[in-house]
Amino acid sequence: MGVLCSVIRFENLHELKRLCHWGPIIALSVIAICSTMAMIDTVLWYWPLDTTGGSVNFIMLINWTVMILYNYFNAMFVGPGYVPMGWKPETSQDCMYLQYCKVCQSYKTPRSHHCRKCNRCVMKMDHHCPWINNCCGYQNHASFTLFLLLAPLGCIHASFIFVMTMYTQLYNRISFGWSSVRIDMSAAKRDPSPIIPFGLSAFAASLFALGLALGTTIAVGMLFIIQMKVILRNKTSIESWIEEKAKDRNQYYRTGEIFIFPYDMGSKWKNFKQVFTWSGFPEGDGLDWPVREGCHRYSLTVEQLKQKADKRVRSVRYRAIADYSGACCPLTKGLKTFFTTPCTEEPRIALRKGDVILATRGLKLVSTHPLECLKAGGVNLWALIHLSLFQILDVWRQTL
Ligand SMILES: [Zn+2]
Ligand SMILES: [Zn+2]
C-alpha cells in the first residue's frame, strides 16, 4: 500500500479504475504468485533466514517485488501525459505542418498520436499497453522500461529459488526412498529436514510458479530488448513504423528524398538521457522536441501528412449494404459473422446502409479495384464488419 500511496496523488485516485481490466489483473496475479512462492520456498525449504546468506537472499526477493511494483504502478498511474485540450502552435503558420485531432479539438504536437482506448492525444506515444491498461508515452516511458528490465531479473532470481528448492527437496526424498543412503549436498550447512515437509502441493505450486517466472522472463525480456533498441535511437515504436513507411513511399514514388529521423541525437548515450533521468521526469515538456542538425522542427509531422495524403489516394471505397450497430459479435447477421468476428479490442464503427468508407489496409478485399466495388453497390456485410473492425485507424467515413 505504501508503494501505491507514493505514486498516486490524491487527484489521481480516479485512476484506480485502471486496475479493473484483464491486463493489470493478470500481471499483478503473476507478480503476486511468483514473489509469494519464492519467499515461501526460500524460508521453508531452501535457504532459511537463520544464516546471513538466507537473510540477504530474502531481502533481495522483497527488493525485487517492491521495485517491480513501484515501476509498474508508476507506469500505470502517472500515465504517458496528454496533449492539452485545444492545443495549437504558437505561430498560426505552423498549423499547416500539423495534423488536427477532431476528438481532442487540438493540433497534434510532434510525436503525439491519438489513442482510441485512452481517447486522448498522447505525448510521444509508443503504444497502448493492455498490461498496464494505459498508454506508454512521454512521462512513463522510463518507468515502463524499468519495469520491463526488473520483471525478468526478479523472475530469474525466483526461478533459481524454485529450481533449487525442488532439486534439494526431491533429491532428499528420492535418496530416502530408493536407497537407505542419504546424500545431502549441503548437510554441513543446514538441517536438511524442514519443519513443514515439502509435500506434493508445494511441489506443484513451485513448478507452476517456475513456469510463470520463466514465461515472464522470456516474454517481458524480449519486450525490454525491443524497447531499448528504440530508446537508444530516441524513437518510439510508432515512429519506427513511420520511418519504414517513409522509405517505402520515397522508393515507390522515386521522390529522391531521403527521410532522416529528426530526433536521433547522434549518440546512444544522449538518446538514453532523453528518457532516463535521475529526477525520474524525462527531458523537456513533451510538446516541443530538439531536432538534429539539418532537420526541420516539423520534419516528422510533414512526413506523416504526406503519408496520410498518399493513403487517401490509395484507399478503396466501400458502400455499406446493411446497417451494423458496431456490436462486438453481432447476433442478427448470421452465424458466420457471429463466429468469425476478429479478436480485437479495437473500437468498432457503426455503419448505416449507404455509408461509404475508405479502407486502406488489411483484408485482401482492399486490393479489389475500387470502381468495381462501387459498381457492385458494396460488399457483403460480413466483409464490411471485418473492414470496420480492422481498418478503424485508417478509415475515413463519408456519408453521401
Ligand atoms: Zn486526440
Ligand atoms: Zn492509450
UniProtKB/TrEMBL annotation:
Broad EC category: transferase
Q: Which residues form a coiled coil?
A: none
User: Which gene is annotated as encoding this protein in its UniProt record?
Assistant: ZDHHC6
Q: What is known of its domains?
A: The DHHC domain is required for palmitoyltransferase activity.
One family name in Pfam for this protein? DHHC
Superkingdom of source: Eukaryota
Q: What subcellular locations does the record give?
A: Membrane
| Reaction catalysis annotation | L-cysteinyl-[protein] + hexadecanoyl-CoA = S-hexadecanoyl-L-cysteinyl-[protein] + CoA
TM spans (from-to): 25-47, 53-73, 146-167, 195-226
The similarity comment for this entry is: Belongs to the DHHC palmitoyltransferase family.
User: Can you supply a Gene Ontology BP term from the record?
Assistant: intracellular signal transduction
| UniProt name for this protein | Palmitoyltransferase
Q: Output the InterPro entries linked to this UniProt entry.
A: Palmitoyltrfase_DHHC, PFA4/ZDH16/20/ERF2-like
Its keywords, alphabetically, are: Acyltransferase, Membrane, Transferase, Transmembrane, Transmembrane helix
